[in-house]
Amino acid sequence: MGRDLRIAFIGAGGVNFGSPTKPWDHATRLEKLGGVTVVGVADPDMEKAQKALAERLAGPARKMYAGAKAYADERALLGEARPEAVLIGLPPTAHGQSRPPHDMEMLCAAAGIHMFIEKPLSVLGPSETADVAAAMEAAAQRGLVISVGYMFRYSRAVEKMRQILDDCPGGPRAVSLRFDCAYTDIHRTSWWDIRRSGGPILDQATHLCDLARMLCGEVDLPSVMAMQLNAAGPGGGLSHMPLGLDGRSVEQHVPGEFRLPMATSAIWRHEQGTLGSLLHGVLLHGWKNETELEIWGDGLRMVLSDPYHSCQLSVRYPNNQGGEVLSFTDDDPFRSEISAFLEAIRSGNRSLIRSGYADAMRSHEFAWAIRRSAEGARQHQHQPVTAEV
Ligand SMILES: NC(=O)c1ccc[n+]([C@@H]2O[C@H](COP(=O)([O-])OP(=O)(O)OC[C@H]3O[C@@H](n4cnc5c(N)ncnc54)[C@H](O)[C@@H]3O)[C@@H](O)[C@H]2O)c1
Prior knowledge:
There is one protein chain. It contains eleven helices and 14 strands. Mean pLDDT is 94; it is low at 379-389. The chain is an alpha/beta fold. A hairpin with a 6-residue loop joins strand 12 and strand 13 (312-316). It has two domains: 5-150 and 337-356, NAD(P)-binding Rossmann-like Domain (Rossmann fold, 3-Layer(aba) Sandwich); 152-332 and 364-380, Dihydrodipicolinate Reductase, domain 2 (2-Layer Sandwich). The structure holds nicotinamide-adenine-dinucleotide. The site of nicotinamide-adenine-dinucleotide has 27 residues, from helix 1.
């Protein structure tokens, strides 16, 4: 395997270090994969960075973290710890831009550091971040590995869907995406403010939007039409709104027009003709989201369900009214994407990366097209949007 890669974590939150009910946790995958030395963890919440590091130093992979330091400033980390690669797990407002202090990717590109970047690429849209995309493209041309966290591209179930579609005459004809988020355990106030999280389409549905592009081809963006059910409009509001750390409703300080939509419905056409639709909700109770992607072809019906937890694929094949249900519960796409990232750096084979920056930007653009259309359609609701603080 050669010498260890020097890795740093930018952001000491849930995606990098895990959270109780969620399947993600890049640090644990790195520990299992090995061949890596962690040189630093940066988070402006220094206590959080120290705590994450202390927990790992007390864990089974302590050796991997023995030389690591916690930093409050990611610039200090880059200058002092000199990582070869970073895992960027930041709020969407804190990265993906060309100006300090939100220019993590630009700094890494200038320093020749490989990057694994969590989606969404930014809270801003593609036109406002075109300079970053151009810089990432140039960095990739110079040989940097840049991978974006659309992990379902590495799922065995999705690989199987692709194979089945290749054998299906005419390919996909219709795709339906469904994501209903369980909201009652989301206590982070920033998530409930569309200015800070980007909203549920950029943050959550983006994974399914990305798969729709991967399986059905590019979307004809002008065809996207969407509507949303607003928190502050008729039929809005939720019965079990969680409390933030201050003991008040997470929406307490969010003006009505910046609250998350309870539901979003969208339709579009892919360039090759396939019809697409999305239904996203922030409506379920508890912590487990319900996620499904369904594709219809000539004689074919495939339903991918619960890809985050107990992934299953039901298939009804052409010329066969029966079907089969395939289980992929032993598959871990989070591990596969990190493994591909490390392997691409070691081997220089960037084709192992299934979601590069430019491609991920197209999924971000698609998600933005849905959000923009849904927000435009908001004006057709009769109830005026209230703006309390
Ligand atoms: N691919 C997936 O399935 C998946 C899963 C979870 C999260 N995510 C994405 O990962 C990103 C991070 O999510 P999270 O759950 O870890 O959030 P989080 O809030 O738990 O953690 C983010 C951390 O970043 C820190 N931070 C803020 N500004 C910073 C800066 N400039 N430098 C360093 N640290 C900074 C915060 O203090 C916080 O500790 C989000 O964009 C989210 O959408 C992706």
